[in-house]
Amino acid sequence: MSPSDKVLVSISDGIAVVTINNPAANTWDLESLPALEAVVNDLNGRSDVRALVITGQGEKFFSAGANLNQFASGDPVAAGAMGEAFGAAFETLADYRGVSIAAINGYAMGGGLEVALACDIRIAESHAALALPEARVGLLPCAGGTQRLAQLVGEGWAKRMILCGERVSADKAMTLGLVEEVVEPGSSLATAIDLAKRASDQSPTSIAACKRLIHSARDLAIGAGLVAERDEFVALFSTEDQREGVNAFLEKRAPEWKNR
Fold this sequence. Notes:
single chain; alpha/beta; 2-enoyl-CoA Hydratase, Chain A, domain 1; globular
């Protein structure tokens, strides 16, 4: 069903479990992002599947976001391709006709948190940590982070996490409204599946209509913001700081910022 082993799919009792499977940190790239988009599109066409749960392979990472090696060259064309792939995949997930639940089983960083933000509901294990640390490496969240995080937690905490690089614990994320439930390590997938089963007992057409209505007011504002987010992301690739930030991270040293 999936065109890539980096995105695994299993279906049971009307629920699809989608697993991000790109060791060691379940990062996103130009193979896994189109695969996720294809998987969700396929699930949209299946009347026997009524809910989707997404999780990460292993016990440490839900997803650490984009593989930064893809940005080391500072190529704006490559950056644009990644931005478009992120947008297509995560916006397709956000518009999934059924209920989508993120089972956050570990670190959710950058694009790893953004894929969870694209879901309807988020369940986090108690040891999980969540952050949008892109500015530390001269980048910015380009997959909905600047838009969806602010809608969930408010402008102040969105700025604190994005502009100050603050990482939050699962418990803190719950107090902020970033996740809906915190569970014991190893139990996020079972909890998410149980919730998906409860959603599956409801009318699929009602679920789809309710999602459209809940999203309607939000989408009037978020559409232009998502496009602008990707444009600003690509614009960073004309700066020295982008190359310095990414390469400093890959070389495990402190960056020396040049742009002011």
